[in-house]
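Illustration: Methyltransferase.
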Amino acid sequence: MAPKANADGRTRSSVQIFIVAGLCCFFYILGAWQRSGFGKGDSIALEITKNGADCSIIPSLTFDSHHAGEAGNIDESKPKVFEPCHHSYTDYTPCQDQKRAMTFPREDMNYRERHCPREEEKLHCLIPAPKGYVTPFPWPKSRDYVPYANAPYKSLTVEKAVQNWIQYEGNVFRFPGGGTQFPQGADKYIDQLAAVIPIKNGTVRTALDTGCGVASWGAYLLSRHVLAMSFAPRDSHEAQVQFALERGVPAVIGVLGTIRLPYPSRAFDMAHCSRCLIPWGINDGKYLKEVDRVLRPGGYWVLSGPPINWKNNYISWQRPKEDLEEEERQIEEAAKLLCWEKKSEKGETAIWQKRVDSDSCGDRQDASRANFCKADEADSVWYKKMEGCITPYPEVSSGELKPFPKRLYAVPPRISSGSVPGVSAEDYEEDNKKWKKHVNAYRRINKLIDTGRYRNIMDMNAGLGGFAAAIESPKLWVMNVVPTIAEKNTLGVVYERGLIGIYHDWCEGFSTYPRTYDLIHSHGVFSLYNGKCNWEDILLEMDRILRPEGAVIFRDEVDVLIKVKKIVGGMRWDTKMVDHEDGPLVPEKVLVVVKQYWVGNSTDTQ
Ligand SMILES: *[C@@H]1O[C@H](CO)[C@@H](O)[C@H](O)[C@H]1NC(C)=O
Ligand SMILES: *[C@@H]1O[C@H](CO)[C@@H](O)[C@H](O)[C@H]1NC(C)=O
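Result:
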């Protein structure tokens, strides 16, 4: 198309292209960020994406002008283009694939645990969004409404109709806030719990909901400033966890099976199960011992539904009296072995409390039966078998947690007690200062960060949780991921700040559905995984879990980002390289990305 020109003309026209293209891209990115996020028609987004295509030459141009010196020889070859996967992969979860699951034993729910594809089974294509996909409604509307097109499964509305979980209305699902165990709504139910558990004054901040359904409990706790990590297996009820994340509520796919939960010890202020179908009594209370591990001293465990109050309910539950009685006996026995104190039992809800330290458990159970785990293995969980042992209290009690929100910036007990090698209180303060500065710089780059446009946020390499603390707001929540290969195990610190997170190995698929995060922060991830596994796989996984028109902020060394930028050039992402806030001479740079809006083809329906 471009006419041949002499040297002069070429210079001038390339400057013009540069300016025009730069403006074009600027407005494009601005437009993409501003227009999306209101759950409106995808036609707008489509239009933007179409116009945006003309800008595809820009990013490298702007990049050149900033870094010509350091970049050395830029690899000019075309990036590899990744094609969309077949639309049957729209809801693909690599490590919870139904076909693969069926090849594993059902015993102890092993088949519902993580089983990731082998190297040669990995997909190398882009997971398509379903036709008609729209950006979810902004919070708090999203708590109650999810666009049908985003998770087009009506089976729950039929199966759980009487339980008031979810209703189908026109082109949206409505969540009335009911649950199997709270027919009067989650708020009323939480009020009942709050009569026993100090939910109101910030003592209880982090919670774990095991077998969460559509996470209404977690959704309604948010207005009380309690952050719940909910998990449920990927099962026949189609996509409960997906609904939770579409609603803007933290959740992951997970199950209590044979492997330890991917959370550190002493993390949660409260754990909860309402009719979660977890067999708490079996194997000498193996699963209760795991809950005990992740509960902080003084934390609470709530069980509502069977077998609590079975005498009045066994007929409606359609279960034999003897079974329920035996299950109750086993649970009480395990709780006694763990030295939990029963605080209340009312209706079908029972609440226990874990003792604050081992001394307050005077008449601990017959010690012969209490088999303790090794003290230094309390946080070693990744693919580690649950051994059915009791996690001992730490030798040095690390001190009281401040109530939230003071907890967010107080020095976490694990740091003040020196339990995180190489991290002092001063390092912690420094880290907080640094992240406040970085996040302020992000705010200048992307004005929408504080507006609620990004609700589900992931920090892929959270460190001490400084990013999440700096961005903290009731409009959003952050899944703080601590890579299993990270040099320092800091996830316990993250929880002590009143934030939530999970261990993960980025060489594998994350335990979530596609399109579940609005913003991903990737700090030092690619330096960390250099030589560990294929960067392409990590980036494709990021593309899978990122919503269309969602954003990624990479922060890494410039040479790392150049390689990343090249790979994502074939992934339908728009990119922009930005200097460190301290200027162009800092080798650490920031790469900002917006995933284009596109949906899969359903013309070739099976
Ligand atoms: C919060 O409430 C509980 C129970 O009422 C009380 O024991 C605790 O001291 C309170 N904590 C703070 C920080 O006010
Ligand atoms: C959908 O199908 C059409 C025609 O076969 C093709 O041109 C287009 O690229 C496809 N889009 C995607 C996202 O696969």
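Reading the tokens back as a structure: The pocket of 2-acetamido-2-deoxy-beta-D-glucopyranose (ligand 1) is lined by residues 198, 201, 203, 403 (CB under 6 Å).
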